[in-house]
Protein: DUF732 domain-containing protein
Amino acid sequence: MRIRVVTTTLAAACVLALSACSSSGSGNGGTTTAAPQPVASTTASKPAASTGSAAAPAPAGVPTPSVAQKAGLMAAMKAVNPALATNEDATVALAMKTCADIKSGKDEATVAKNAVAQASTGSVVLTQEQGKLVATAVKAAFCPA
Structure:
């Protein structure tokens, strides 16, 4: 039951994020483009500071989420565990690693187990069920199987 609620929430967050970007983009293309660029440059400067977490996880075949997809992903991760939404760079790195597992054909249990291991650091501790929800969130946000 909880998976359905989170999946529905994820889907709604993705749809809202994407529709907000597309409607803003068609109305004011110049200002919409200018706003995401600072977010991207801020995001780009953060991985340089934390070289290990966000710079490494760009395996071949894994898409990089757009600004709108990141917004949907962050909302979904917050629904899974609010602590996952405190660091966008770490969350995107986790999502890209999870996407790599999905794209490589690993079974759901392994993908969930790896997500738990990668996300459970310091103050964040995920359950196996939350690992499954992370995988579902990643698929819904930017990494279809």
